[in-house]
Amino acid sequence: MLSLGGTLTVGRLGFGTGGLVGPGYWGPRHEDPERLLAVLRRSVDRGVTLIDTADNYGPDVAEELVARALHPYPEGLVIATKGGVVRTGPNVWHIAGRPEQLRAMCDASLRRLRTDTIDLYQLHRLDPDVPMADQLGTLLELQQAGKIRHIGLDSIGAAELARARQVAPIASVQNRYNLMDRASEDVLKLCERTGTAFLPWFPLGNGTLTGGRPTTPAADALTSIATAHDATTGQIALAWLLHHSPALLPTPGTSSPDHLDENLAAARINLTEEELARLDALTDGTASTGGTGGTGD
């Protein structure tokens, strides 16, 4: 289990909703929406206690699916969403962090999620054209008004996080991070020291850690360890995250019930010290903290 902001307790694997919308996070998926609702409900039935979504997934589509599937929300279920980014097309978006924009986005998310308070509201990107104090100050006002319970930050560096913590209590960070992409290791270490949850986006490398890649030392290691545990390479990649740091809270998403079950089963895999050492030695070291135009988090 993991603490969010000292008041919410969640399991170590959440469920991300980016995979429930169309390509490039634009529009609905071209499949029966009842299947998507069923996957959301199944995740909670299987013990997931954190649902991670965003207003720009669709836009609006993912938040509406969460409410349709799960409202009224069962006790203990934490709903996290994000604001501060406006999507205008597939993989096309821009940052919007002015106070009036953040207030309007939060209010719209409250309506779509059918709730009076959002458990975790994450600033999807810091707006470089707006002072950090103004952006976080707006979230503090929303917190004081009871509209959000905890504040999180997305795609942020360690120095920025340290500055942000001087302005507002930060319950979570959501940066790109996985077995082969550890550019945010310094952020993770800061989260460990400060009791901040770290929700890694693209925890499976946007599919690159789930098998089917050309033979590489990383693929060989994942495959051999997966074989030893009668598991998939994706399960081993998730299990490594859970072993690597107590601050990590992966939220892999899927539209498939079988893939959901596979992801959740990763929490039961116990990696040996030798296996962990072998996986720890793997990294390409090429990715950056800032993310890409897809806002895959």
Q: What are the defining features of this structure?
A:
seven-stranded parallel sheet, two-stranded antiparallel ribbon, TIM Barrel, alpha/beta, 11 strands, 297 residues, 2 domains, globular, 10 helices
Count of discrete alpha- or pi-helical segments spanning 4 or more residues:
10
CATH H level, superfamily name of the largest domain: NADP-dependent oxidoreductase domain
Could you tell me the radius of gyration in angstroms? Answer: 18 Å
- Give the CATH level 1 class of the largest domain: Alpha Beta
Query: Oligomer, anyone?
Result: single chain
Which consecutive residue ranges, at least 5 long each, have pLDDT under 50?
A: 285-293
- Which fold name is given in CATH as the topology of the largest domain? TIM Barrel
Shape annotation:
globular
The CATH architecture of the largest domain can be given as Alpha-Beta Barrel
Run of helices and strands: EEEHEHEEEHEHEHEHEHHHH
Average pLDDT rating: 94
Task: Sketch the major β-sheet.
Answer: 7 strands, parallel
Largest sheet: spatial strand order:
3-4-5-8-9-10-11
